[in-house]
Specification:
- The mean pLDDT is 92.
- The chain has helices spanning 6-45, 139-155, 214-221, 240-248, 257-272, 282-295, 305-322, 341-356, and strands at 62-66, 69-75, 79-82, 111-112, 119-122, 132-133, 136-137, 163-166, 173-178, 183-194, 225-228, 235-238.
- Strands 1, 2, 4, 8, 9, 10, 11 and 12 form an eight-stranded mixed sheet that branches.
- Helix 1 packs across helix 5 (257-272) and helix 5 (257-272) packs across helix 7 (305-322).
- The two termini are 23 Å apart.
- By secondary structure, it is α+β, with helices and mostly antiparallel strands.
């Protein structure tokens, strides 16, 4: 494997990364205004959904997965004092209220059930049949309620010319927003925020690991986790606040981890995996970065950009080739488990060619 020319890095960093940041900042600003209005109107119609405030700085409810695909977590209201379920039970219900002869599939990896009794305080609306079956808050039912609210708000507001509903095979709510730079597709996900505890499924940190430091670990775990309504019966664990905090603390020792991540993301979006719906998002790259930081924990490992960057790409190539990328906090979850294998194999070939002859020239 050849070394990486440094001059390409300087040009890429100054021109492409900065330009991307400016364009996405503009898109996020415009999307924020739409989301703030939309969720404010929805919160007036149903007290269970919170309005997302407009922010001049970082908005933790908007995650940029690609320049044209944002994940928007819409917090729910009226569920407080979360605690882990003490006992397991079989579920036999359907979404229509009938009975299955055999129990529903148990949650795996990043999934879990959610019972209203797991909260010490809950609004009476969470006990209603429009979202609750046999004591479970069912994500598909929450999504049905939420989608109707979104549709009605768009149809009866000034947003109808700028915002439209999107049809997707999944049960998740998708809308398209026309911004001054491009059309952005938003995945709107009702979210139970649990900032007071750490999920029992996230057995982190692993023993005898030198990165991150124990002080950083305590800080990261204090951000808790979220539960996202993205499937029919099971809620999906998310650690977006913890992951963002970990990203912000990356280079306290003066290393080049963030630069490596930014350049890898730029190469992914423009060369290795372009398009509106790529097989990899920034979350995959972020996870690769965390695993590489853990394997190479010392400051001296991140002082030379060319070596650090190629090490990161090698890790990415390995994960893509094997169709296997462990979630950083929940190790028994494969983030590539449902990815298109043909697209992964094509990407692996591009990464192999890059590693054989590294260069950072972009279109």
């Amino acid at each position: 494997m050849k070394s990486l020319p440094v001059v390409d890095f300087e040009d890429c960093l100054l021109k492409k990364v900065d330009l991307r940041h400016q364009l996405i900042s503009q898109s996020v600003e415009e999307v924020q205004k739409v989301i703030h209005y939309l969720t404010t109107e929805i919160s007036h119609q149903d007290v269970r959904f919170q309005a997302i405030p407009y922010s001049d700085t970082y908005n933790g409810n908007i995650k940029v997965l690609t320049p044209s695909h944002f994940l928007v977590t819409v917090p729910v209201r009226g569920l407080a004092g979360y605690r882990e379920a003490k006992e397991q039970r079989w579920r036999y219900y359907t979404l229509q209220g009938t009975k299955f002869p055999s129990p529903l599939r148990s949650p795996e990896g990043l999934q879990q059930w959610l019972e209203v009794e797991q909260f010490m305080r809950s609004l009476w609306q969470w006990h209603e049949a429009d979202v609750n079956i046999e004591g479970d808050i069912v994500p598909a039912k929450v999504l049905q309620v939420f989608q109707k609210l979104v549709e009605n708000t768009i149809r009866t507001s000034h947003l109808s010319g700028k915002v439209s509903m999107l049809e997707r095979p999944s049960s998740v709510v998708w809308i398209a927003v026309e911004t001054s730079t491009c059309q952005v597709e938003l995945e709107l996900v009702p979210t139970v925020e649990i900032p007071t505890s750490w999920s029992a499924k996230a057995r982190w940190p692993r023993c005898l690991k030198r990165w991150p430091s124990l002080e950083t670990v305590e800080c990261i775990k204090s951000f808790g986790f979220n539960l996202l309504a993205r499937s029919d019966y099971h809620w999906q664990l998310s650690f977006s606040r913890a992951e963002q905090a970990l990203l912000e603390l990356l280079d306290e020792d003066g290393g080049c981890r963030r630069k490596c991540f930014q350049i890898m993301r730029q190469m992914k979006e423009e060369v290795w995996c372009p398009g509106r719906r790529p097989v990899l998002t920034s979350h995959h790259l972020q996870t690769v970065l965390f695993w590489t930081c853990e394997k190479y924990p010392y400051s001296k490992d991140w002082q030379v950009f060319s070596k650090s960057f190629l090490r990161l790409v090698q890790k990415l190539h390995k994960c893509v080739s094997q169709h296997f990328l462990k979630h950083y906090f929940v190790r028994n979850s494969n983030l590539l488990g449902y990815a298109n294998t043909t697209e992964l194999d094509a990407l692996a070939q591009k990464l192999a060619a890059f590693l054989k002859n590294p260069h950072l020239s972009l279109p």
